[in-house]
């Protein structure tokens, strides 16, 4: 199976920045579409961002567009989420997900389309 490990979460003041990392196992990372999701207490898991296997196609939720940037380094089997201008409403557990089936140019926003998930990393933004 594919194992995903998130890191980089923490406590940051509003307006600050964090970069999340997701390290994946295996040698076929470049064939996986990768996504970031988040879940706050009492809320459903929501889509944040996703990217194609090559990193050439990216999508963002409207709530983070212009503030967050998704990228990947396939040589390191790692996908990143750079979060700038953080707001208290960004507080959540952030999850990395991999879609290992289908074609990697498809980057869905539905969590049901992804096959493997990391354990999550907590991001807390104070005001």
Task: Describe this structure in a few short sentences.
Helices cover 0% and strands 46% of the residues. With 127 residues, it is an all-beta fold.
Which structural class matches the secondary elements?
mainly beta
Instruction: Report, as a whole number of angstroms, the end-to-end distance.
Output: 40 Å
Q: Based on DSSP secondary structure assignment, what is the total number of beta strands?
A: 11
Task: Let me know the largest β-sheet.
Answer: 7 strands, mixed
The oligomeric state is single chain
Written as H for each helix and E for each strand, in order along the chain, the element string is: EEEEEEEEEEE
- Beta-strand residue fraction: over 45%
Mean pLDDT over the full residue set: 95
Q: What is the gyration radius calculated from CA atoms?
A: 13 Å
Number of helical stretches of at least 4 residues: 0
Portion in helices: under 10%
What are the low-pLDDT stretches, counting only 5+ consecutive residues below 50?
none
